[in-house]
From TrEMBL:
Protein keywords: Membrane, Transmembrane, Transmembrane helix
Protein name from the UniProt record: MFS transporter
Domain Major facilitator superfamily (MFS) profile: from-to ranges: 7-385
Pfam families linked: MFS_1
Species name: Leeia speluncae
Length: 389
C-alpha cells in the first residue's frame, strides 16, 4: 500500500490543496448571497451554474488534455480558476457570480479529470477501492480544514476569496515540481486517442447503466450538500461561527467511512455495498426530515454525510473495474460530466423544496434520491452486457 501511495503522492497533495479551497468555496458563496438578502432559490441557481460549467468542462476535458497533456492542462485551468475566484471580491451580483461559477465549474472539471484519471491509471481493480477511498479521505480532510475560512466571511470580507486563491495556486506546485509522467497505456492503446462525445456516452450507458445513474445520484447528493447545507443551517438559525464548525465537522464525517467502505468494496460486490449505503442513508434522511430541532438531529446528519460521500467513490470504482487503461481519461471525464448533471439538478430541486417546504425540504429530497439509487441498483445491476473495449 505504501508504494502505491508514493506513486500518487503528488496527485494527493495537489488535490488536498485544491479541496481545502474548494470545500469551503461554495459555503462562502452561499453565506454571502444569503447575507445579501437573496432567497434560497437564487442561491440554488447560482450554485447550479457551477455544475453546468462542470458539465461543459468535463465534455471538453478530453480534447484539452489530449492537446496539452495532463500537467499543462492542470496548470492552465488552475490559473483561470484563480482569476475567477478573485472576481467574487469585486461585488455581489447573482448574475455576475453565476457566470463566475460557470467558469469555475469548467476549470474544476478538467482539474478533477487530470487527478482522477491519473489515480485510476496507477492502481489495479483489486486496489482501486482502497486507493480511491484514501484519495477521497485526504480530500475531505482537507475540506474540513478549509471550512475554517468560512469565519472570515463576517461583514462581507474579501479575505476568504484571497485565501482560497492562494490554496488553488499552491496546488500547482506538487504537480509541476515532481513532473511524474502519466502511466502509458502499453499494448492497449488505440491508434487514435479516445475523446468524450455522444457516442462514447451512449456506449457507457449501454455497458454500465448503473454507473451512469449512480453518478447522477452522487452528483445530486454532493451538489446539494455543498450548495445548500449552509442555507439549511441558516434557516435553522445557526450563527456563522456555528455553520463553520458544523461544516468542518461534516467534512470529517465525509471521510470517516471512506476507507472501510472502500476496503469492503474491494473484497465484496461493489453493488451490494452501494445498496447497503443508500438504504441506510435513505432511511436516516427520511427520519431527519421529520425531526424538528431534536438533540439527535445533528448526529444523524453527520452519519448521513458519512454514508452519502462514499457513493461517488463506489460508483467510479465500479465503472473503472470494467474498462481498459486507455479509456481511463475518457471515462473519468464522462463520470464527472454525468456527476455534474446531478450537481445541476440537485441544488435546484432542493432549493425549490426548501422555498416551499422550509428547511426540512432538504432532507425530503435527499431521502428520495437515496431510495432512487437503491431502486436503480436492482433495475440495472444485471444489464451490464456490452464491453467498453
Amino acid at each position: 500500500m505504501t508504494h502505491l501511495i508514493k506513486a500518487v503522492l503528488a496527485i494527493l497533495i495537489s488535490n488536498a490543496l485544491l479541496m481545502m479551497g474548494n470545500g469551503v468555496f461554495a459555503s462562502v458563496i452561499s453565506v454571502d448571497i444569503t447575507q445579501a438578502g437573496f432567497s434560497p432559490a437564487v442561491v440554488g441557481a447560482v450554485q447550479a451554474a457551477y455544475y453546468l460549467g462542470f458539465l461543459i468542462g468535463a465534455w471538453a476535458s478530453g480534447v484539452i488534455i489530449a492537446r496539452l497533456g495532463h500537467e499543462r492542462s492542470y496548470a492552465a485551468m488552475a490559473a483561470v480558476l484563480c482569476t475567477a475566484v478573485l472576481g467574487h471580491a469585486l461585488y455581489i451580483n447573482p448574475t455576475f457570480w453565476g457566470v463566475l461559477r460557470l467558469l469555475e465549474g469548467a476549470c474544476m472539471a478538467i482539474l478533477f479529470t487530470v487527478i482522477e484519471s491519473g489515480m485510476n491509471l496507477a492502481v489495479t481493480n483489486q486496489q482501486r477501492g482502497r486507493i480511491f477511498s484514501f484519495y477521497l479521505t485526504t480530500a475531505y480532510l482537507a475540506s474540513s480544514v478549509g471550512q475554517g475560512l468560512l469565519q472570515f466571511s463576517k461583514n462581507s470580507s474579501d479575505t476568504p476569496y484571497l485565501l482560497i486563491t492562494c490554496l488553488f495556486s499552491l496546488s500547482l506546485l506538487p504537480m509541476m515540481i515532481t513532473g511524474r509522467p502519466v502511466k502509458s497505456y502499453g499494448d492497449q492503446a488505440p491508434k487514435e486517442k479516445p475523446i468524450l462525445n455522444l457516442d462514447s456516452l451512449k456506449k457507457l450507458y449501454q455497458a454500465l447503466p448503473l454507473a451512469v445513474w449512480g453518478a447522477i445520484g452522487a452528483g445530486c447528493l454532493n451538489g446539494s450538500f455543498y450548495s445548500m447545507m449552509a442555507v439549511y443551517l441558516k434557516q435553522r438559525h445557526y450563527q456563522l461561527d456555528e455553520i463553520a464548525h458544523f461544516m468542518g465537522g461534516a467534512m470529517i464525517a465525509a471521510f470517516a467511512l471512506q476507507w472501510p467502505v472502500g476496503k469492503l468494496s474491494d473484497h465484496f460486490s461493489r453493488i451490494r455495498i452501494l445498496r447497503v449505503v443508500v438504504l441506510l442513508g435513505g432511511t436516516l434522511t427520511a427520519i431527519i426530515s421529520f425531526l424538528s430541532q431534536s438533540i439527535w438531529q445533528e448526529g444523524l446528519i453527520f452519519i448521513y454525510i458519512s454514508l452519502s460521500f462514499t457513493v461517488y467513490g463506489l460508483v467510479v470504482s465500479y465503472a473503472n473495474d470494467h474498462i481498459p487503461d486507455y479509456l481511463r481519461t475518457t471515462i473519468s471525464a464522462a463520470m464527472l460530466l454525468i456527476f455534474s448533471i446531478g450537481g445541476i439538478v440537485g441544488p435546484i430541486i432542493v432549493s425549490t423544496a426548501m422555498t416551499h417546504m422550509g428547511a426540512h425540504g432538504y432532507f425530503v429530497i435527499i431521502s428520495a434520491v437515496m431510495f432512487s439509487i437503491l431502486g436503480i441498483t436492482y433495475c440495472w445491476a444485471q444489464k451490464q452486457k456490452v464491453s467498453m473495449h
